[in-house]
Amino acid sequence: FGVPYLENDNNNIQLLGKTSKTIFDTTIKEKVLGVEGVINITSYRSILDQISGELDISFRAEIESGELIPIAINETL
Asked: Could you tell me the pTM of the whole model?
């Protein structure tokens, strides 16, 4: 999805550890809505456990046909 979780040669910003949850969530939602065919996000949740480094993001995206697509991402950083 091209989300700049960590700063590197390709990303001049870093979402994790250096920004607010509001900016993090807004960036993720913008990236999802930028995917061709996605017209809406009907639900969204994100949790970052800073002790374990576990990131959970789940959302439901509505596509042009009206279908709702559930997505769940779980990463350990």
From this structure: 0.74
